[in-house]
Amino acid sequence: MKHYSTTAASSKNPVKFRIPTAENLVPIRLDIEIDGQRFRDAFTWNPSDPDSEVVVFAKRTVKDLKLPPAFVTQIAQSIQSQLTEFRSFEGQDMYTGERIVPIKLDLRVNHTLIRDQFLWDLNNFESDPEEFARTFCKELGIEDPEVGPAIAVAIREQLYETAIQSVASARETRINKKGRRGSEQFSASKAGGPALDLMKLFGNRSSVIRKRREWDVYEPIVDLLSNEEVDALEAKEERNARA
After folding, report:
1. Alpha carbons 96 and 238: distance in angstroms, whole number
2. Interior angle at CA 231, CA 226 and CA 234, nearest 5
3. Considering the entire predicted model, what is its pTM?
4. Is 191 in contact with 97 (CB distance < 8 Å)?
5. Which end of the chain has less neighbouring CB within 10 Å, N or C?
6. Which of 227, 228, 222 is nearest to 113 (CA)?
7. Separation CA 169–CA 229 (nearest Å)
């Protein structure tokens, strides 16, 4: 898997805050421990869904996983807090322009370890992390059904962080240039995080790119871990979490 192409609409005008993908889904990550029992999960949430769905989801999760009832409140509060933070950026300007940013994957899902790096076009609001993850798993022969969603969430988390940086930089630029002619002309390289000129490098039909000269350096790495290796990693993660 080297190159995925879709049509990117180039614009230097500001857009209202959202995840720069086809579906505006919020990455949610839970890590909750109560009385020595730990629950971790990661998924996406539609910010347009009614808040009443949060408690329904929390109750269903606790029931399905047979967790102690105390987890219902903690799960619901954590999801609601993350949704509230996301919504606090809604309506604010952010800049994408002709911009691509590096996306890095370094995660373990059950027995599967994934490492990869590629470039993502922030100006393509038709990009689809979930479809990318499904194709990634298919081409690399990954059979664990939990890997694809985990990859998609990891991508969305990085895109979310970049979008937040773009909002902050747009706000700072607007303040610094207030009253000056041409204040709306915003340099893509100042929109938060590293940026490259997409048009110069790849033309106008790119969404996810792995540059040819970097194929050997950033070729996807997928390892299947033994039970012993998984146990050792989980023990290390537990120690780090408690440190």
Report:
1. 38
2. 125
3. 0.79
4. yes
5. C
6. 222
7. 42
pLDDT tens-place string over residues 159-215: 999 999 999 888 877 777 665 554 444 343 343 444 444 334 333 334 565 555 555
The CA distance from 223 to 218, in Å, is 15
Paired tokens of 129: 């992390």
Quick one: pLDDT band at residue 217, thresholds 50, 70, 90? low
Chain length of the chain: 243
For residue 181, the model assigns a pLDDT of 52
Question: b/e per residue, 150-181, with b = 16+ CB within 10 A?
Answer: bbbbbbbbbbbebbbebbebbeebeeeeeeee
Residue 50, both tokens? 């009614």
Show the tokens assigned to 153: 């969430």
Residues 79-122: tens digit of each pLDDT = 999 999 999 999 999 987 668 899 999 999 999 999 999 999 98
- Map tokens 């950033």 to a residue: 218
d(CA 220, CA 117): 7
What are the tokens at 49? 């869904």
DSSP 226: P
Using the structure block, give the residue that is written with the tokens 């590629």: 118
Nearest-CA neighbor of 26 among 80, 99, 75, 73?
A: 80
Q: Which residue has the tokens 């080297």?
A: 2
Among the ranges given (42-46, 53-57, 113-117, 187-191), the one the predictor scored with the smallest mean pLDDT: 187-191
